[in-house]
Please model this.
Amino acid sequence: MTNCYAHGCIKLTVTQIVEASRKSGALEEANHRCHEHGVEMYRLILMDESGRENKVYVNKVRGIKWYYAEQTDICQQYKVMGKIKLDVCMEVDNDFFLQTRFKMIQRMPSDTPTLALSTSRGNVFLQVTDFDVEWQAHTSSSASSYLAAV
Model:
């Protein structure tokens, strides 16, 4: 059992709730609150199939794109959907790591895992609806992922 650091990319599909009078305004507000150059995140926790929590360190937040807004049941409130890419690294055991599926840990009192990003305007909480992890260890390998609330 050899430990090493695996580097990879986590691609997340996320949503956030914003107040706006129009769909285009909701997309603009989402981008203003949370965009690639003003966001920081240091780590997140992925749980493997055996229930072990793995600290994943975020090297860089990149590729934030808000692409769709739909009105909620509340007046002038929109649910905005987007995609985020995170460059990450994690200490892994090669034998264990290559066959591992991960899930995100629920940190908010809802059925959906939630990410907290730090911005210059404060924290932004995003619900994660889907994610995919692509790892690169000593050889190129991919660990499959699944989304579930714990």
Remarks:
- Confidence is low (pLDDT under 50) at residues 138-150.
- The radius of gyration is 16 Å.
- The CA atoms of residues 115 and 126 lie 5 Å apart.
- The first helix runs from residue 23 to 33.
